[in-house]
Amino acid sequence: MIEVFLFGIVLCLIPITLAGLFVATYLQYRRDLKTHLSVAQVLSTLWFGSLAGLLIEINRFFPDALTFPFLILVIAVGQGEKD
């Protein structure tokens, strides 16, 4: 990054110097972002968030299996009383 700045000063090319600084800053930002996204806390938050969303959607289309035995028992008891 310093080399880009010095090169621009030597040749009196201020716009090129600024462009070089922006490019160097952007590349450093990409490296930092990549490092940040690889942190276990971020990845685990994304994983558990997506897993929770998946389980919510599954539960919406297929209601809780624990209610089925109870409902079958209620239906069977109700049918037995009619006989």
What are the main properties of this structure?
single chain, 83 residues, mainly alpha, 4 helices, membrane, photosynthesis, photosystem i
Task: Please summarize what this structure is.
This protein is 86% helix and 0% strand. The protein is an all-alpha fold and 83 residues long. Helix 1 packs antiparallel against helix 2.
The helix tally amounts to 4
Q: What is the β-strand count?
A: 0
* Oligomer description: single chain
Contiguous uncertain segments of 5+ residues: none
Q: Which strand-content bin applies to the residues?
A: under 5%
Termini separation comes to 89 Å
Helical content band: over 70%
For the CA atoms, what is the radius of gyration? 31 Å
* Morphology: rod-shaped
Q: Tell me, rounded to a whole number, the average pLDDT.
A: 72
Subcellular location: Membrane
Function: May help in the organization of the PsaE and PsaF subunits.
Protein name: Photosystem I reaction center subunit IX
Membrane topology: Single-pass membrane protein
Describe this protein's structure.
The chain has 83 residues and is mostly helical. The protein has one domain. 86% of the residues lie in helices and 0% in strands. It has helices at residues 2-10, 14-37, 40-61, 67-82. Helix 1 (2-10) packs antiparallel against helix 2 (14-37). The termini are far apart.
Write the layout of secondary structure elements.
Blueprint: H1 2-10, H2 14-37, H3 40-61, H4 67-82
Helix pairs in contact: 1-2
Pfam family, one: PetG
Protein name: Photosystem I reaction center subunit IX
InterPro entries: Cyt_6/f_cplx_su5, Cyt_6/f_cplx_su5_sf, PSI_PsaJ, PSI_PsaJ_sf
